[in-house]
Specification:
The structure is a homodimer.
Chain A: H1 11-23, E1 27-29, E2 36-39, E3 49-56, E4 73-79, H2 85-95, E5 101-106, H3 109-123, E6 129-134, H4 155-167, H5 172-184, E7 186-194, E8 212-215, E9 226-229, H6 233-245, E10 255-262, H7 268-284, E11 288-289, E12 293-295, E13 304-313, H8 315-322, E14 325-327, E15 330-332
Parallel strand pairs in A: 3-4, 3-5, 5-6, 10-11, 10-12
Antiparallel strand pairs in A: 1-2, 2-4, 7-8, 7-13, 8-9, 10-13, 14-15
Helix pairs in contact in A: 2-3, 4-5, 6-7
Chain lengths: ~325, ~325
Amino acid sequence: MKKIMNDPKDFVDEVMVGIETAYGDRVHLLDGDTRILVSSYPKKRGKVGIVTAGGSGHLPVFLGYVGSGLLDGCAVGNVFASPSAKKMAAMIKACDDGNGVLCLYGNYGGDKMNFAMACEVVEMDDIETMSVLVTDDVASSPKETASKRRGVAGMVYAFKIAGAAAEQMMTLNQVAEVTTKAIANIRTMGVALSPCIVPEVGKPTFTIEDDELELGMGIHGERGIEVCKMMSANEIADYLFDRIVADLILEKGDEVSVMVNGLGATPLEEQILVYSRVASRLKKQGIAVYMPHIGEFATSMEMAGLSVTILKLDAQLKGLLRMPASSPFYTSENK
Amino acid sequence: MKKIMNDPKDFVDEVMVGIETAYGDRVHLLDGDTRILVSSYPKKRGKVGIVTAGGSGHLPVFLGYVGSGLLDGCAVGNVFASPSAKKMAAMIKACDDGNGVLCLYGNYGGDKMNFAMACEVVEMDDIETMSVLVTDDVASSPKETASKRRGVAGMVYAFKIAGAAAEQMMTLNQVAEVTTKAIANIRTMGVALSPCIVPEVGKPTFTIEDDELELGMGIHGERGIEVCKMMSANEIADYLFDRIVADLILEKGDEVSVMVNGLGATPLEEQILVYSRVASRLKKQGIAVYMPHIGEFATSMEMAGLSVTILKLDAQLKGLLRMPASSPFYTSENK
């Protein structure tokens, strides 16, 4: 096992302290709690709070999106494990400014259960919450049972849209509504080329041969649709694109944003090749791309592979996507 | 070999086309040349041009820093190979606006030779050039022969300082002078945990055992100082920090910027652990950190490992570092 770390059981706490050490002018640990990060950016009074939570090991997801025009707070658990309901409740309280909090997170059992408990707890303090689940991974369940799908890289678009909506002083209901609409327009699918190593486990999460890739794998190493022989960049892009557009109806004249997300060990050069092919497929269909995102947005530590996400835009979603946003790990300038 | 690519011999050209496809609103290929990228950002009239060149395979270095307040142009060769003098000359010409061009690049034989020829060529067109070499890698040569050192991640700070100086309408001489001062204040050292694969070669650049790391390795896999057993994050940070401060005199009350640069496959979490330790060592010595940079700034494709860079600031360098800058791959907001 070759990971740059100290005692594996301190991994998450040390990362959290490191984030505050580096970016303490913009984000901070809530009352010094090494599992809860909240924004220190100036905030409009009465703005709806946007929070998320989930397992560690996906940076920049989730902590990297605590900032301005994005998330107000984030609770994390151990690597790939949900944080407790207690931590979530403390975070929700800290992020409420009187007009409620949107809990926006990936569709995973532990996170759902704990968020449900946390929301009950804060209700006793008269804090209103709504929950919206991100379910963008087309590989994880067929279209007929789309609500069972996992949340993966598309959640970054969801954070961006929700954060911008709150920044525009929409009500909690309105923020939840537009975020739900965005998620209905987001699809992701990924491939994995190599596993990652969970610090406290110390061995690879799965095995894969040197000439193989796994199609549709989840960001925690959940099994995909099939294992096949290695394909070219164009073949991978085509495969992912075809699966996504079989699920998300796109028509000539539509506008989309495209994210090619590196899972950790895949070079930016290779991500760009895949983006290029996806963009050319879209162009052939008369579909324009707005604000492409290419890079590492939601990783599985050192896993090699990437995912493609398409967000279908309408005027409202485009307006929210283009609003400025800033965090230590993500910057979007108004263009 | 598992790389996401098409025909290996098309790798660089396809990446260049991909960059223009994604970010054609901000950068473009010079006359469609797939080895020369220039900025399309609005530019002040008569600004000194800042250009670089080098081998491909290091994204975001070099292409990712073509933008506003950064580089005006960049020529690239094949992976880890210098571009031709002809390409460099075409780029210099395109980036001259009457007041000369600074050629700012890493201290490698091929790049030096080709830039020297390119500068002679453009002189015939009455274009004034000056050259400044980045020599920040303390592992590559002892202090007595510091001018022989290689340029590595510290070149990103050099690009930022030079770009800001040009933006302030300094003359070519002034830009070269302040950039030279910055480089004299920059030191980097790195460790590698795993090799990368050059597309047209198809096999790892070097071998290293599963329980070893190489100290002082270069970003093309150049041999380092020693191979040793795997160390903890704190031990790695201490080792790199000690080597850097043995070479760069820091005193209580000094201010520095620190970059922890992932070489490709090393997770952001692990980079943050190393940053945290370096920051704590600096704090103990009464040295403040300004604008930390943590992430992938200069990679070796899928190589695992990281480097630490320290830039010692004075009032002028701090002022230039904090000026806004923007490219498709790097954003710095004025704070």
